[in-house]
Structure formats: C-alpha cells, structure tokens
UniProtKB/TrEMBL annotation:
Function: Converts the preformed base xanthine, a product of nucleic acid breakdown, to xanthosine 5'-monophosphate (XMP), so it can be reused for RNA or DNA synthesis.
GO biological process: purine ribonucleoside salvage; xanthine metabolic process; XMP salvage
Short name of one Pfam family: Pribosyltran
Catalytic activity annotation: XMP + diphosphate = xanthine + 5-phospho-alpha-D-ribose 1-diphosphate
Gene transcribed to yield this protein: xpt
Residue sites binding xanthine per the record: L20, N27, K155
Listed pathway(s): Purine metabolism; XMP biosynthesis via salvage pathway; XMP from xanthine: step 1/1
KW Transferase (keyword) present: yes
Organism this protein belongs to: Prevotella jejuni
Protein name in UniProt: Xanthine phosphoribosyltransferase
Keyword set includes Cell membrane: no
Compartments it resides in: Cytoplasm
Length: 190
C-alpha cells in the first residue's frame, strides 16, 4: 500500500532493538484519512470472506478495528488488558508485549465472542506474534472461527507471520519491514 509505505518512510522513526515508532500517524496521534485507506485495503483483501465481528486487543488496535467495523457495519470486540469489575463469565489468556516488555492477562466476555462467530483480527503491528497467539487462544476457547488477521505493519525479521500461519490462519499485512538494522527502515515491496 503506497500511501502507508510513503508515510512510514517519511514519519516513521527507528529505535534500537527493532522498534519502529509510528505514533505520529497510527497509534498515538492518528491520521483518520490514512486509517480509512488502510481499512478499505483490508476490506478489499478480505472481500470474499464471511465476517460477523472485528476483534482486536487494546489499545493500538482499537482505531483500525473501529474504522473496519464502521465501514463494514459490524460490531467490534476488543480484548481488555485488565478485567473490569463488571465482567463475569469471561475468556482469558496471557500475552507478552514486546514493546512494553511485560505480560498482560487479556480478557473478553463470553457474551461477545462465541460459537458461530467469524472474526477478523486487526492490529497495528505484527512482530513476534504474541498478540496473535493470544487471540488465536481466545477464539479457540470461545469456539469462534478466526477467519483472518490483518496488520498495518509487519516486522518480518521478528517472524510473527510464521506463528500465525502454523495455526492455519490467513495473515495479511499492508506494509512489511524487512529490516531496521542500523536504524534504517528497509521495506519489502507488497
């Protein structure tokens, strides 16, 4: 996706240890027009797939998930990183955050994810696949069908795609970073 690629190269910032900062337009301050273009591209890629819910993990996946839900007129469910006192019957799993270097116990109410659901997971980054593993686990617990996973940016050198594809789940990424060595952003043509 050319608009996304150009924006990453213009405004993305590289930090040591494979960190790409895109908070100027994706996950702190957002560019709603770019986010709409991103979601339209995800919709195009999953056009022939039956979906009845969009799913993500808080917080950075919420913006693209809501835009997708809006454009497709579908509900959006997000796994919460803290169990609310009002949540009773729930699904739970553990996810390790590479960026935050900590584990989260993420939860979804069984009221919002269950048998018969055909869900598409949307998130900002695919790195090691830890969030993806958590969502795969939650969908299995719920008996929901995970029809695919869409990522705005994939860091291919961290091999998260392999984790997803080993589970037999379709994976789509709109921008693929091949390397951040020497804090230089090298992207794959997609």
């Amino acid at each position: 996706m050319k608009a996304l690629r150009d924006r990453i190269l213009k405004d993305g910032k590289c930090f040591p240890n494979g960190i790409l900062k895109v908070d100027k337009f994706i996950n702190h301050q957002m560019d709603p027009n770019l986010m709409k273009q991103i979601c339209v591209e995800f919709i195009r890629r999953y056009a022939s797939t039956e979906i009845n819910k969009i799913i993500t993990i808080e917080a950075s996946g919420i913006a693209p998930a809501i835009m997708m839900g809006f454009l497709l007129d579908l509900p959006v469910v997000f796994a919460k990183k803290k169990k609310p006192s009002t949540m009773g019957d729930m699904l739970s799993t553990t996810v390790f955050s590479f960026t935050k270097q900590r584990e989260y116990h993420v939860v979804i109410s069984k009221e919002y994810l269950g048998k018969g659901d055909k869900v598409l997971f949307v998130d900002d980054f695919l790195a090691y696949g830890n969030a993806a593993k958590g969502i795969i686990d939650l969908c299995k617990q719920a008996g929901a069908e995970l029809v695919g996973m869409g990522f705005i940016i994939e860091k291919a050198f961290q091999h998260g795609r392999e984790v997803i594809e080993a589970e037999g789940v379709r994976c789509e990424s709109l921008a693929i970073i091949e390397s951040l060595d020497n804090c230089e952003i090298k992207m794959k043509e997609v």
